[in-house]
From TrEMBL:
Gene3D superfamilies: Homeodomain-like, Jelly Rolls. The lineage of its organism: Bacteria, Bacillati, Bacillota, Clostridia, Lachnospirales. Pfam families: AraC_binding (PF02311), HTH_18 (PF12833). GO terms for molecular function: DNA-binding transcription factor activity; sequence-specific DNA binding. It comes from the Bacteria. Keywords: DNA-binding, Transcription, Transcription regulation. This is AraC family transcriptional regulator. Residues 173-271 form the HTH araC/xylS-type domain.
Length: 276
């Protein structure tokens, strides 16, 4: 499973991102990653499986999950679903950070959870219509949601180990961003570690302990992730796609792909085209 740092870019007209999860067709995975933003995933139809810090959550209709800044998580959705995703840049909460520099949220009782669900659903419904003045209403509900989060959903105390993990993932963020920008190159562990002032042993250790994935697996998962986009978005040959994304040949790409998706790239492409 991959560990990666994800940059959250707000919608052009909003100070956050609001969209339908890209895995809506099913047979889709998002490998292990983390980011500085706070995310809310709210399932409208179907279900998805969420994994956060080694905990498994099965989300069905009207269920949601709060993903905090620098929490390692992954997603699997074997079946079609409709899931609203709200990504809130971490800097939004900078005035409310604790002495340790972090802020966490957690689900509360049914009344508070329902209020959050209603706000996110309404925000997306209004934004989707793109009516005159609608973005103002969405923004007003967004700030109402922020108030709800910091007053009702804030975690009172944070475990010291969790804080330590967040700090280590902060360190890894620059490394993984560099790897995302250069994943199709020959990225040796020793060379990447040296670039960021780490020993290879140290970088390998913090990858495994805090990102919960080893360096090589991360890199291969990253290559597969980007290759999948070309696989389903073009008619390029499998061998060409493999070479475009850092694999030495189609055989190594197919082996890595099958390990992660349970089938060969050609089979995956065929199934995706049929279900479009």
């Amino acid at each position: 499973m991959e560990g990666r740092y994800e940059l959250v870019i707000p919608n052009d007209d909003l100070p956050f991102r609001l969209f339908i999860f890209e895995g809506r067709e099913g047979k889709y995975k998002v490998t292990k990653h983390w980011h500085h933003s706070v995310e809310i995933f709210l399932v409208q139809e179907g279900k998805i499986d969420f994994y956060i810090n080694n905990s498994h959550l099965s989300l069905a209709r009207q269920d949601f999950v709060l993903v905090n800044s620098n929490e390692v998580h992954s997603i699997e959705c074997p079946e079609p679903n409709v899931t609203i995703v709200l990504q809130i840049p971490g800097d939004t909460f900078k005035e409310y950070l604790g002495e340790d520099g972090y802020l966490n949220f957690e689900k509360k009782d049914d009344i508070q959870n329902q209020r959050l669900t209603e706000l996110v659903t309404s925000m997306f419904s209004i934004y989707e219509k793109q009516e005159y003045g609608g973005s103002l209403k969405v923004k007003s509900q967004f700030y109402e949601l922020l108030h709800l989060l910091v007053t009702e959903f804030k975690t009172e105390t944070m475990d010291k180990e969790l804080i330590r993990q967040k700090r280590q993932l902060d360190k890894l963020s620059d490394v993984t961003q560099y790897m995302r920008d250069n994943y199709d190159q020959d990225l040796k562990l020793e060379e990447v570690a040296e670039r960021f002032g780490f020993s290879s042993t140290y970088l390998s250790r913090i990858f495994q302990k805090y990102a919960q994935v080893n360096y090589r697996t991360y890199l291969i998962d990253l290559r597969v992730k980007y290759a999948v986009r070309e696989l389903v978005g073009s008619d390029h040959e499998i061998g060409e796609i493999a070479m475009n994304h850092g694999f030495p040949d189609s055989r190594s790409f197919s082996k890595a792909f099958k390990k992660r998706y349970g089938c060969l790239p050609s089979t995956y492409r065929k199934h995706t085209v049929i279900n479009r």
